[in-house]
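Notes from hallway chat w/ T.B., transcribed later so I don't forget. T.B. wanted the structure written out for a chain they're using in a teaching module, and asked if we could keep both sequence and structure tokens in one place. Agreed to drop them here.
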Amino acid sequence: MALTGWLAGCHAAFADPMTLDFSWGGEKGCVSLFPNPEFHLHNVPAGAKRLSLTLTKGAREMGGQELPIPQNGILPSGTFRTFAPCNPGVYQWTAQVKSATGDVLSEASKARYYPSDELAQH
């Protein structure tokens, strides 16, 4: 019985980390409220119920929202709106997935240059 618990804990510890991806996809910035790009989540931990997405440029938060986790891991573009991007630069999306009680189960982020869509180094 103890071995089973230990193996389950080891499996969770060695599971692939959650990842987040998106593309600006030629979106035009500098609108009053910018529609979110399409997001792809992979390796979402079991028990995750809510998804919190936040957009930042440097230390400045540009908006975000908390939503139910999409069953297929894809959140369509235009699901919610933020205050950016506008000016060219590096913008980062951070995703946190939470349990039904609000505990953060995992976090992933991805930074891209806007408007070129090149990946930025963390």
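Follow-up for T.B.: Confidence is low (pLDDT under 50) at residues 1-12. Might be a good example for the class.
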